[in-house]
Amino acid sequence: MDRKNSARLLYAIILAVILGALTGWFMGRDALMFSWMGTLFLNALKMVVVPLIVAAIISGISSLGDVRKLGKPGSITVIYFLLTTMAAAFVGMFLANIFVPGNNFHLIPNMTNTVEQGTSSLSDVLLSLISPNIVASAANLELLQLIVFSIIFGAALTVTGEKGRVVGDFFESLNKIMMVIVGWIMVLSPFGIFALVATPVAEAGGGNAILETFGAVGAYMGVVLIGLVLHGIILFILMAITTGRGARFVREMLPALFTAMGTSSSSATVPLSMECAENAGLSKGPVRFVIPLGSTVNMNGTAVYQGVAVIFLAQVYGVDIGFSDYFVVALTTAFASIGSAGIPQGGHVMTLMLFSVVGIPAEGFGLILPVDWMLDRARTTLNVWGDLVGTAFLNRFMMDE
Ligand code: ASP
Questions:
Q1: Could you tell me the residue ranges of all domains in the chain?
Q2: Which end of the chain is more exposed for a tag (fewer CB within 10 A), N or C?
Q3: Dist. CA 6 → ligand 1 center (Å)
Q4: pLDDT digits 0-9 by tens, 234-253
Q5: pLDDT score for 118
Q6: What pTM did the predictor assign?
Q7: For 3-399, CATH number?
Q8: Does the pLDDT at position 270 exceed 80?
Q9: 191, HSE (Cβ side, Cα atoms, 13 Å)
């Protein structure tokens, strides 16, 4: 897409977000008549995400020529994911301690809205990496399993030499074709984003109904949002220092960021993230590797939210959080990111696991659940921003190699 058209598209997307919010806010449930447009856009993204991820990773790895060359960029990416996710959890916990959003709740609310305790453990996370049925994983959009399979497939391809070349070329072409389709979907994105913003606001009953839900947990929401913005700025500074990229890069990524906000799904945003990153001139290795992987294992926004939620509910329930607990929370969020799917509210199971690790009653989840659909949109935007910064970071590193 040329510069003029991409600028036009960006303005159209910004207008779509504003119009969508206003439509849902003022029309209330009547705005649900637009919801099909959002579903159509989401379905189109889901339609391309499986072939795109498989083709991108396999062709990305096979273009390296030798899978051992993946070792260094691979470990840098994983370290980036772990450190930034842990830092995000610390940002959330730090802010919750400063603003004390749980202050308003001196009495423990008698929650009737109880939620089942999460039961995931490290072994579950490990088991979730290998698919017993790759077709079923593709059908269920279990992207982490597809990614692991694609990495193994790409690795095997690099050792098959001349005989495997035709398959490597096939996936290279498939990747190109899928990106053409993504370009077409992108042109329609303003309509989809408009509906995806309007629909949940309408479902919540419009503006006044939303303002009522703010009342009880408004302070908690405010702290999560401040944390997300702050961590986004920290990542920006990190990127500016290490890669020299700045405001222009943010601008180039806006279509992906707004799509993340609209869809609440890092995975559904992968096609647009790849398109934006490629348009910004990032090379194909980092784009094809970091973005799909990051969408399922790197969740900075979710970690900020989990950090705030833990401290907020500890304040509400009078649970003592000791010094070492902060590290436990940060480490758990980093690993929980791997086990959380990049889908709307995909972080819930792991959030419950985190609560049980530090002794927060699972019923506390009922307190933060009513506003979660809004926070999910905001944290997904940071999740995607974290992946894009990681891509720029690896791109810079690979230029030096
Ligand atoms: N919706 C988030 C994502 O797709 C996951 C979550 O925090 O629930 O990245």
A1: 3-399
A2: C
A3: 27
A4: 999 999 999 999 999 999 99
A5: 47
A6: 0.87
A7: 1.10.3860.10
A8: yes
A9: 12
